[in-house]
Amino acid sequence: MKPVERSVSWVERHALGVAAAATAAVIAVMFYLPVGIVLSEAVGIAPGFPPAVSLDAFAEVLSDSFYVGALAGVGADPFAVSRHADNVASWAAAFLAGEAGLPSFGLFGFTAYQALLSTVASVALGLPGAYVLARFEFPGRRTIRSLTILPFILPSIMVAIGFIAMFGRRGVVNDLLATVGLGPIDVMGTLSIVIVAHAFYNAPLVTRVTAAAWESVDARTVETARSLGASRRRAVLDVVAPQLLPAVLTGALLTFVFTFMTFPIVLALGGLRLATVEVWVYNLLGNMNYREAAALATLETALSLALTYAYLRYEARQAAGSRGANPLQRVPLFPSLGSLRSPVRLGVLAYAAVVVVVFVGPVLSMVWTSVTGPDGLTLAYYEFLVQRQAEGSAVQTKPWPAVRNSLTFGVATLAVALPMGVAAAVVTTRKFRGRAVVGALAMGPIAVSGIVTGVGLLLGPVFGIPLGGGWRLQVTGATAIVAAHAVAAYPFVTRSVAPLLGRLDPAMVESARALGASRARALVDVELPLVAAGVVAGAAFAFAISVGEFDSTVILAEGSKSYTMPVAVERYRGRRLGPATAMGTVLLVVTSVSFVVIDRLGGRFERG
Length: 608
Description:
Elements lengths: L2 H41 L12 H7 L2 H4 L3 H5 L8 H13 L4 H34 E2 L3 H6 L9 H12 L4 H8 L11 H24 L4 H9 L4 H29 L3 H6 L7 H10 L3 H29 L12 E2 L10 H28 L1 E2 L2 E2 L2 H12 L7 H30 L6 H8 L1 H4 L2 H13 L2 E4 L2 E3 L3 H26 L3 H9 L4 H12 L1 H17 L2 H6 L8 H9 L3 H31 L1
Parallel strand pairs: 1-2
Antiparallel strand pairs: 3-4, 5-6
Helix pairs in contact: 1-15, 1-18, 1-21, 5-6, 6-10, 6-12, 8-16, 8-27, 8-28, 10-12, 11-12, 12-15, 14-15, 15-21, 16-28, 17-28, 18-22, 18-25, 18-27, 21-22, 22-25, 23-24, 25-28, 27-28
């Protein structure tokens, strides 16, 4: 065998191992190392052997009433719990009573409080949608169900701009109220608008998870209960509800985790007055208070990891399985005009109106505001973007570099995250000792916010890590941003591909191996074509997440070089709403077109 042929043969035999090792190296350097740097900055590790460790930063946070409210005394003297029982009781009472002031709650308490309210709102808004999708048949049902994935695609800063355009003092809602002689409403900067915006993102998640569980309910169990004398209401409460409860709790727990780590929504709609932990970390970074920011980020990460672990354990034990063999029969939503008088159908229509206001209204309001001014329809805001591009100075935020950078970073992220996600999916679907641990480590970025990753990258690879001998590990600019985006995106590729790989018949791979194919060749020629839908979905997710990513990008983007469209939207928001809505509309178009293009190309690949 010639040397070239031997090299090719070696590569084929070891391709999967090399890909898995490369993926592990990227995750270690671009995720776990930055997270470790945040921890080391928080604990103040000093050089030497053994290294000196100081927990002063944590002690300062946990004993500061600004951060923990009435629990500050417990943090200052944790062994005197009995002396602080009254403080703990008053804190809990204030929490349950909804007295959401920072003096009693503290920053962590307020963050948890708004996450709890957001979770309740998301569940309340998401459950009726699950009922409609699971129990009724109507034109466009599948399309509407597929739209429940939008929260993972639409950039959060763009949605925040949409809420400002709709509910702001000069927004669409107040314009409509003025036409009928009613005074303006002012909800911006309030907790209510933040909760509604969170529901925009998380109610579809509750709907999607619960609808899948509803469709898994076996109709025969309901029929058995009815045959034993149970009324329709009792059958739902005793048979259907217990089977839906795990899915509802899963959606609620995920919503709490996501809203506890909220950043762009609160930053744009509430500012520092309604600051959550993430927003305050960002504020501390702006003031170059890196140690306190690292301590806060570490505490938040510990809480989010604990909640995510609880979710994964709960999902593994109780999550609804695959669609039942005999699912509940869906009925026509409006079988006749007379059915419009049915209380259930009237309720569905009322719910549809709420959906239009909460989910469609902000996006349409952003687009409408971008083409209207005090004197009516106008393109002045888009002309402003064109003029800024043509005449703006080098340090000003221009639209074309933002679009170019977003697309470039998106393509680069796709090139990195797609093979990483597929490699992680292949590894985590193979049976071996320690697979659960490897799977948990691979999915770690889901439980850690982009702010924490951005802080770690900034304090580590961006500033530079001395390696000794005059060498220095440094990753800056576009490379750091792509690394952060890839770390955030690849778990979604894994989640899209792994379930499909796990359901494939192992005999197909074994047959290919028996015919002489290497493991890598069997993957490429046999397995990946069969899971092409998951690969395409993962690719679309990776690209869309990169284009819309804001949390880590706003930290890592250099002033005039590597800002993206979401960062440009935030910078324009600081000037006037009009240019921000115009840039947000450009972001909406680019994100939607990109997602559709990737999906269509994937469809061709599947058919081929």
